Input
Amino acid sequence: MVEKETGEFIGNIEIMSQNDGIGEIGISITSEKQDRHYGTEAMKRIIEYGYNELKLNGFELNVYKTNPRAIHCYENVGFVNVGSGKEDDDIHMMLKK
Output
């Protein structure tokens, strides 16, 4: 991802895998560009792309319990906490159409 105004690299977002119509999202934003709502904008766009272009039925992701900014971002775009993630310090979140 690049910042529109400057063309500067700000992070990555991808649908890492797809299983049974569910895409797993991975996202990272450089620390100096956090708290500017870039994550929310990127999540909205990749979700729209996944639904419209890839015909996915939903999304999942894992997030560290100690990352409240990310959790808030994911909740803002509709993700819900569905339990423990792959690791002890992860939360597994899902978004269904």
